[in-house]
Amino acid sequence: APDKRVQTAAATVSMVTARARIDFPARVGVRRISETWAMPAAQDVAAEIEALGFGSLFLPEAGGKECLTQSAAFLAATQRLVIGTGIANIHVRMPSAAEAGARTLTALYPGRFVLGLGVSHAPLVQRALGGAYRKPLATMRDYLDRMAAVPDQIEPGIGRPARLLAALGPKMIELSGTHADGAHPYLVTAAHTKTTREILGTDKWIVSEQAVAIGGPAGSADDDQLHRAHTHLEVYSGLPNYRNSWLRQGFDESDLVRGGSDRLARALVGMGSVENAAEAVTAHLDAGADHVVLQVLGDDPATDPRPALRELAGALGLGSSTPCETPT
């Protein structure tokens, strides 16, 4: 049963009724870093992701390409695919620019753009961007308030674009319900997705991420898949926000070694056959996620994900997927 903190957060979130439209054509999408790809080639990948039956393409803002510009290119290259930022770094642009850009994309592609926002990490903000990393919750709340203050004359009649927060802790999850349209959890277990749903209630969006490393027989995870999982976790395991999140999820200091322990890697990455990977995705849906974006781990970020995605589309039955309806 939820603890008192979860119950209190859920009661607060339930008072907020405004929701934004997101027209996911299927309940499973893709997260992909395309920064090393020329945009025409990256657009071809997006078009095939749509053709395979996936419902979305979420892209990070890793310090290279600007994510709203990329989103516009992917929206133009597809017909129904939902494009989301996963996530847009709030330290990179002014709140008014984020809101105006999201409104323009929503005006051009109604129901197909999701603005995922995150507070980023102190090492990146302070060292790479030369900024100041202050209290994350207060910083995000102020940023969202400033977005809401953008006048209606900017894309009149559009209203608030669909907005999700990269929320890991209970207070940020609560904020994702009171000041946004839901949460976009990253590097979490299905149990965390369940807790997020308990906090947000039934009328907010949850779009969870699930990394996968496939290539072995059913029920197995070979050394190559574990290596890909540990490589994926290498950077994240040094960031306090994720380390604290994993401790809240029930892991301990022995799991927080660089690249993560085998236990952490197996819990966060769906490994083995395509069927095993599909089960990891389904676990989040069963736990309360409205939509799950899977991230194929290759030998490096430039690996073409399409061969794996073709296999996964079949295992997930995407040819017969039904649309993901807006919560009511």
Descriptive terms for the model:
14% strand, alpha/beta, 10 strands, 13 helices, disordered N terminus, 328 residues
From the alpha-carbon coordinates, what is the Rg to the nearest angstrom? 19 Å
Major β-sheet profile = 10 strands, parallel
Approximately what portion of the residues adopt beta-strand conformation? 5-15%
Strands, count: 10
- Uncertain parts: 1-17
Shape, please? globular
The topology string of helices and strands comes to: HEHEHEEHEHHEHEHEHHHEHEH
Number of helices: 13
What is the arithmetic mean of pLDDT? 89
Amount of helix: 40-55%
The CA-CA distance between the termini, in Å, is 24 Å
Your description of this structure?
The chain is of the alpha/beta class. It contains 13 helices and ten strands. Strands 1, 2, 3, 4, 5, 6, 7, 8, 9 and 10 form a ten-stranded parallel β-sheet that branches. Helix 2 crosses helix 3, helix 4 crosses helix 6 and helix 12 packs across helix 13. The longest helix has 14 residues. The two termini are 24 Å apart. The N terminus is likely disordered.
